[in-house]
Amino acid sequence: MNKAFLVVLAVFALAAKQTFGQMDCAGKPDGSYGAGCRSYTACKGGVGTLVTCQPDQAYDFDTNQCEPIDSVKPPCGLNSSACIGKPDGRYALQSEQCRWYFTCQEQVYLGANPCNNPPSGTALVFDEVLGVCNWKYDVSPPCGTKQ
């Protein structure tokens, strides 16, 4: 491999870590900021630290910290019946206005992910036809407004 490619790859990896790993805490009050079900950013003095939940825990948006997965309500809590009878794949979480999607594998619920960052955003919804997060106007009902 040439050196230029490795440099570009390293720059991309660093940018991705900043973009997807934790949020920028500059100017934010101290506290926890959720970004998904498996981790959150703890901000203190303008510096963010990525906190990853233990395997048997999930981020609880009510307490703003990792809690035992069976005590956390959806979208992050364990929803053991959601995948019964469903083929492997990703599905819109309609109870959360399709702003989240969950993954099933061998009829086991693997967890939920937000379409928006922060998760309270409303711009994107999950498109089950394409299997990606998409603009509401490009997604058919019940998740979107496409006619």
UniProtKB/TrEMBL annotation:
It comes from Helobdella robusta. Residues 22-78 form the Chitin-binding type-2 domain. The gene is 20204185. Residues 1-21 form the signal peptide. InterPro entries: Chitin-bd_dom, Chitin-bd_dom_sf. GO terms for cellular component: extracellular region. GO terms for molecular function: chitin binding. It comes from the Eukaryota. Keywords: Signal. Coiled coil: none annotated. This is Chitin-binding type-2 domain-containing protein.
